[in-house]
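Reopening this ticket.

The earlier resolution said the output was attached, but the attachment link was broken on my side. Pasting everything inline this time so it's all in one place.
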Amino acid sequence: MNIFVYEHITGGGLIGEHLPPSLAVEGQMMRNALVGDLDAIAGIEVVTLRDPRVEPPAGGAQSIVLSDRAQWGSAFDVLAASADAVWPVAPETGGVLERISRRILDARRTLIGSSPDAIRIAASKRETHRILSADAVASVPTFRIDEARPRHDGPWVAKPDDGCGCEDTRLFPHEAAAVRWVGSRPDATRFVLQPHVPGEALSLCVLARGGTAWLLCVNRQRMQVRNDAFEFTGAEVNAIVDRDEVFASLAQSVVGALPGLHGYCGIDLVLTPSGPAVVDVNPRLTTSWVGLGAALRRNPAALVLDLLKADRFVLPAFERSTVEVRVGT
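Inline output:
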């Protein structure tokens, strides 16, 4: 099986533009982990696209280096057409992951990922909240700047509706300060407001297919606020045991509400005294993937491929451990 792994940041998606160091670091970490996992599976051949500013992945993967932006489209289409399947890793921001996924399907290739329609919903924090709330799934309330909002006297958070990670995510002492900051931006309509929900920042690694979810592990997110801006510094993968199956139930509720989720996805949440509340749904690889194989002592890419081909998928037992993944430039 020939698989084209396309990681957008390292694979030429920003060629000819500034390459933010933090995005490049996380992109390389995820690409290298995924390529390494696939390379370890007998019978799998991997090919990637590469921005010349980043290092190639280690191992046996073929890496096609781009020279300029004009070359990107034709190179992507040629590699997609010659592959049995394409595994995209890209931000939802600006519809990037949705467009790439549609391009793969238009080429009649197997898409290792969620449907474009599910990606479109998950890309919007406000739409995700609306869909989850309609299914009685607890999630952080999310509002446009021009919408009526319930009274909340504590801190508020402002972030891009389609933002990836902690991009432009800021904490304000009260609603008026958040509204003023968003209103001062030329791209104000892109932003949403959320009441700050105190609790522990966690994430879930999940497999999904046809509305069914399989929880792989629960991770502790390493977050900090510096100069009122949120920063993600890493994750403690497989940090929490889901003894009461609270998180497995939440994963199933989320995937049931978004049945187009497929393969691997991440769910960000806040664990409050009254239970978990969903912050974000990521229909793609997340940084936690980097430590997932070591945490489960099982190849996660093999699990995703089994999900593609098995009529009846059964999650195997894992010999679990906790793995620290640190992010830094």
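Reporter confirms the inline version is readable. The chain has three domains: 2-112, 141-195, 198-326. The CA atoms of residues 7 and 89 lie 5 Å apart.
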